[in-house]
Amino acid sequence: MLGFVHGWLIKFAKQFENIVVICLKKGEYDLPPNVKVLSLGKENKVSRLRYLLNFYKYIWNEHRNYDYVFVHMNTRYVVLGWPFWRLWHKIISFWYAHGHVPLMLKLADRLADVVFTSTPEGYRLPSKKLKIVGQGIDIDVFRPAADRKAAGGGTLKIMTVGRISPIKNCDILIKVARILKNGGLEDFIIKIAGAPISKQDVLYLNNIKRDVQRYKVEDKIVFVGPIPNKDIPGFYQKNDIFINLSDTGSLDKAVLEAMACSILVLSSNDAARSFLPSRFIVDKTNPQDLADKIKDISRMSDLEKTNYEADFRKYVTENHNLEKLVTKIAATYEAI
């Protein structure tokens, strides 16, 4: 789920002399020598108290080795570390990109020196500290397939990528499959990549699988399961249409990853309305609308598809390029 952070750290390592990473859980990694990784201990199943003690031990032991603090999404770390970081004159920042505005976010906003987000929709709290820097997509990794014809072929390949959860609205795709199958578009497949995390997610997945049988679309729906982050670009490249029906309230990076791979995207995301043409915006509450938009894409000429694919990649390159994001963050620190 958070494998993309590995790519971020590689880019950050080019901009800064020294990076100390404190993570909740540490897995395998291959990072430059100026990056040190310290785990709070989740992989060893330690207690929450041990998490906290490790956190304070690390920020103290390393406090001479960093000037800036960059907290990713989990704003509680801003609150926990603020008294010490302020005492040591560290520049405190955090990244947040979600439509939800919890109390912890409001508190972190008051304590931090600067806040980073991907789009205006990703930070719905009025703040003079806010810097909009894009989503951070590595366009050298997420790129078009060398042979786009290999991705197409005869069957229209439709996909979605992400956590299988009610907030992602994957159940709508089952209804869409039934509409398409009964409505004349027979040569298609819908791939659902991802896995449930919580117990509620597992129940949701089981309900979806029952819907697949009830609507008799077993031949049209494929549950791919979780895909390692390093294999995601190749998965995008082998498909034709990416569908995003998320209710997160902020721009999902998967939308931009697919666009960077020159894949056509259909999205109901509020943030996507500012850059996607109307024919690619869908109503997540209306399966018929989504089915009609898929049919519309299936009828496009090769030239029309190619032009849209090129425009999509150009948009990501210019507005959500990871290299540009890291440069903007470094420049912001220097200015402060």
What do you see in this structure?
The protein has 336 residues and is α/β, with parallel strands linked by helices. It folds into two domains: 4-136 and 321-335, Glycogen Phosphorylase B (Rossmann fold); 148-319, 3-Layer(aba) Sandwich (Rossmann fold). The protein has helices at 4-15, 48-61, 76-87, 103-111, 148-152, 171-182, 199-214, 232-237, 253-260, 287-298, 302-319, 322-335; strands at residues 19-23, 35-39, 68-72, 91-95, 114-117, 130-132, 156-161, 188-193, 221-225, 241-244, 264-267. Strands 9-8-7-10-11 form a five-stranded parallel beta sheet, with helices on both faces. A four-stranded parallel beta sheet has the order 3-4-5-6, sandwiched between helices. Helix 6 links the parallel strand 7 (156-161) and strand 8 (188-193). The mean pLDDT is 93.
User: Helix content range of the residues, please?
Assistant: 40-55%
What is the CA-CA span between the terminal residues? 32 Å
- What's the overall geometry? globular
Q: Which fold does the CATH topology of the largest domain refer to?
A: Rossmann fold
Q: Low-confidence spans: pLDDT under 50, at least 5 residues? A: none
Beta-strand content: 15-25%
Q: How many beta-strand runs?
A: 11
CATH architecture of the largest domain: 3-Layer(aba) Sandwich
Q: What's the overall average pLDDT, rounded?
A: 93
Determine the number of helices (DSSP H or I, runs of at least 4 residues).
Answer: 12
The number of distinct structural domains comes to: 2
Topology pattern, helix = H, strand = E: HEEHEHEHEEHEHEHEHEHEHHH
Backbone structural class: alpha/beta
CATH class of the largest domain: Alpha Beta
The fourth-level CATH homologous superfamily of the largest domain is Glycogen Phosphorylase B
* Sheet with the most strands: spatial strand order: 9-8-7-10-11
Instruction: Calculate Rg over CA atoms.
Output: 21 Å
The largest sheet, given as strand count, sense and whether it forms a barrel, is:
5 strands, parallel
